[in-house]
Specification:
Strand content: 5-15%
Shape: globular
Helix content: 25-40%
Order of helices and strands: HHEEEHEEEHE
Number of helices: 4
Oligomer: single chain
Largest sheet: 7 strands, antiparallel
Distance between the termini: 91 Å
Strand order of the largest sheet: 3-6-5-4-2-1-7
Structural class: alpha+beta
Number of strands: 7
């Protein structure tokens, strides 16, 4: 090519090349999106397990100073909620600086979240008001109970033994106005995770997401899991969470 000959303009991508590239990107996005969601679910479950283990750690520390008993000892379980037991735990542990707020008593994606206000010492009566605690607790246990005994577990739809949970339900997409109108509303309690699991923490401070099976519209613990754990002692009860009721919002008093 001579020096005076003009350069030919470079051709850009044609529509076919752009179309192929776009299809490839969409395919990759569709392939990796479920994987990303699964990783996200496992990540938040790990945080929930960490919270449950910390609760067990505090219960064991409490028991070491109270002849091996957990805070529900000597109380009528039929009149107790897990909120009340954990509030007694906070009273004992906050004095030593082992707990400063209610964070560990919640769980990622739970509607039950503390306001991080314990109230004034020594009563800490604002701690874990209704709607501020995610975790149920099995009564009648102590640090000498079998290590494979369930102690702390996510709130259930049916508070019986073995407990039952609701299947995960994808929230329908909402418009901006609908999201504004639904602000402050609590999601249904007792809902299992999207991967059909629920977090249970045992007396040895091990916590894990446990697989559930669906039957009659509810999620159940499998027979193999129930056979792998220690049955709670005779006379035990599952201490339910305290929740807000319509017309009765949280009321703090010290």
């Amino acid at each position: 090519m001579s020096e005076n000959e003009p350069e030919k303009p470079k051709k850009g991508w044609c529509w076919l090349q752009w179309s192929v590239t776009l299809v490839a990107l969409l395919f990759l996005a569709a392939y990796f999106m479920p994987v990303s969601k699964e990783i996200s679910v496992k990540a938040v479950q790990m945080k929930g397990c960490s919270n449950a283990r910390q609760i067990i750690g505090l219960l064991l520390a409490y028991a070491s100073d109270h002849e091996g008993h957990y805070p529900d000892f000597g109380k009528d379980p039929s009149k107790l909620t897990s909120n009340e037991v954990f509030r007694d735990l906070i009273r004992a542990m906050a004095a030593d600086g082992l707990i400063i707020d209610e964070t560990i008593f919640s769980c990622p994606q739970s509607p039950f979240v503390g306001d991080k206000n314990l109230g004034q010492a020594p009563g800490f009566n604002q701690a874990l008001q209704p709607g501020e605690n995610h975790w149920m607790m099995v009564s009648g246990l102590g640090n000498d109970s079998p290590s494979r005994t369930p102690v702390v577990l996510e709130n259930a739809a049916e508070v019986v033994w073995p407990p039952k949970w609701l299947p995960y339900k994808e929230e329908p997409s909402k418009s901006f106005i609908q999201r504004l109108l639904s602000l402050g509303r609590l999601s249904p309690r007792g809902r299992s995770w999207k991967n059909k699991k629920i977090i249970i923490c045992l007396n040895d401070a091990s916590a894990e997401p446990v697989s559930l099976k669906e039957k009659d519209g509810l999620m159940h613990l499998s027979d193999s899991y129930l056979n792998s754990i220690a049955v709670p002692p005779s006379g035990f009860q599952i201490l339910d969470i305290a929740v807000e009721t319509p017309g009765h919002p949280r009321h703090h008093k010290d």
